[in-house]
Design goal:
Layout lengths: L1 H20 L8 H11 L1 H21 L5 E15 L3 E19 L3 H67 L5 H36 L19 H11 L1 H22 L4 E13 L5 E12 L7 H67 L5 H35 L5 H4 L8 H8 L8 H13 L3
Antiparallel strand pairs: 1-2, 2-3, 3-4
């Protein structure tokens, strides 16, 4: 009777400890982790900077259609020594202001601007793809910490249970109910349990380090299980949605569009350009010979006659890049469809596994309790009890793993369909606005201007401590 009471107490302690573990302190939610990951990520900062660099390409391309004004100044000393005229020395100061304006280039500059804009849109989509990777990594890290934490708790409770089993076996051995072999079996299982606990604890430490890397800090408290995302079980519809809206797809489409404009620009470079040019100059002699003012204005037309095949080569090169990016677009389309299909297959599989694991745990628990009762009556050996206990442990471990995998698979579907972004998840973060910087710089901003000062403030605010 004493032996059975110990076992019942141990099983009750197992459920109680798991309950207490989930109710102490305020649990850290998955939303908390995703917010921290979004704010912490250096990879997002890196790609935002790359996007701002792409924005500046638009301003650089647009500068070709703006007036270009330059100044030069010069101080020149002249001297000569002649046997008939003697020495002649003079010092002149001159200054020149020159300006030019592109009037017509058959659309080459306009095409360059559009190519740069399409590149900006492609980089924006790539930034969203990076954001999805950051958030999916945080989800995976969150669930793996939960998985490892519960595995450690399960191993600890299993160790306590086996310790009680060993004590009971020793008690029964002393009264000659079982043999020394039964005690040795209990000792072996206890040693194996200690090894399993050490492995689980090592897995937890590694999971916590990955969480800290992905989220920016170690788990501050117990991680609460979130509500499972609402997944529409329509693979065909999900594939269609992903092909239209996935950031990788959008990036590939804009890359093709960008190189199409580059071809137009390269073809226009074969044709003449027309520029308006003017200059003003003044030259003054410091030797007292007065000063001279000069000025000119005119329209200049120019065009290539022979460039060693460079211009034609540029056209062919741009066409080859377009063909390559079209091939990439085809590849990305089918890759996205495969990723969506794989994500749904994984989700369906893990749901079946989860249901099976729950049933396995229920049945294993009933079998274990029955085996213990039968052992107390002499109908089962210690080895039988230990085997049933091991079956229950494996079933509970499989259930823990399946629960974590279910959430990871669900968020993989969101990522595969382009829905795993801070905006679509409604995360409480200050979202990066790629349009704001673009609007500031797209028309070109002079350093010494009111807009330039405003842009400097924006850049300082974007700097990370």
């Amino acid at each position: 009777m004493k032996f059975r009471l110990k076992k019942s107490f141990t099983l009750a302690a197992l459920g109680l400890s798991l309950t207490l573990a989930t109710t102490t302190a305020r649990a850290e939610t998955l939303a908390d982790s995703l917010v921290s990951a979004y704010n912490h990520s250096g990879l997002l900062e890196q790609n935002r900077a790359l996007l701002r660099a792409a924005d500046e390409d638009v301003a650089a391309a647009g500068a070709a259609l703006q007036p270009i004004i330059n100044w030069t100044t010069q101080i020149q000393s002249n001297f000569s020594d002649n046997t008939s005229t003697g020495s002649l020395n003079s010092t002149n100061v001159s200054g020149t202001l020159s300006a030019s304006l592109l009037l017509y280039d058959h659309g080459s500059s306009a095409a360059n601007i559009e190519a740069a804009r399409e590149s900006v849109f492609a980089v924006r989509a790539q930034l969203l793809s990076i954001e999805q990777q950051i958030l999916l990594r945080a989800v995976t890290a969150f669930m793996n910490v939960r998985r490892a934490t519960e595995s450690v708790a399960l191993s600890q409770n299993n160790l306590r249970l086996l310790t009680e089993e060993l004590r009971a076996a020793q008690d029964r051995f002393e009264v000659r109910e079982i043999t020394r072999t039964d005690v040795a079996l209990a000792e072996a299982r206890l040693a194996l349990s200690r090894s399993g606990l050490a492995t689980a604890q090592a897995d937890l430490l590694q999971a916590r380090e990955e969480y800290a890397n992905a989220v920016g800090h170690h788990p501050k408290s117990q991680l609460s299980l979130p509500k499972l995302p609402n997944i529409k079980l329509d693979v065909k519809g999900a594939k269609s949605l992903a092909v239209r809206t996935h950031p990788d797809m959008i990036a590939a489409q804009h890359q093709v569009a960008s190189v199409e404009f580059s071809i137009k620009s390269a073809e226009a470079n074969l044709k003449p350009t027309v520029n308006l040019q003017g200059s003003l100059g003044i030259q003054e002699s410091l030797s007292g010979n007065g000063f001279t003012n000069t000025g000119s204005v005119g329209i200049v037309a120019s065009g290539p006659i022979y460039s060693g095949g460079l211009l034609s080569s540029n056209i062919r090169r741009a066409m080859a890049q377009r063909d390559a990016l079209r091939g990439n677009l085809h590849t990305v389309t089918h890759n996205i469809q495969q990723i969506v299909g794989n994500a749904y297959a994984s989700y369906d599989s893990v749901n079946v596994l989860l249901n099976a694991s729950r049933e396995q745990v229920r049945a294993s628990r009933v079998a274990f309790r029955g085996a213990r009762e039968e052992a107390s009556l002499g109908a089962r050996t210690t080895l039988d009890v230990l085997d049933f206990e091991n079956e229950l442990l494996n079933a509970e471990a499989a259930l823990i793993s399946a629960q974590a995998d279910q959430y990871i698979a669900a968020y993989n579907i969101l990522s595969a369909t382009g829905l795993l972004t801070a905006k679509k998840l409604g995360l409480n973060v200050q979202q990066y606005d790629p349009e704001a910087y673009y609007e500031l710089v797209k028309d070109g901003v002079a350093k010494k201007s009111k807009q330039g000062a405003q842009l400097d403030k924006v850049l300082r605010a974007l700097q990370r401590d």
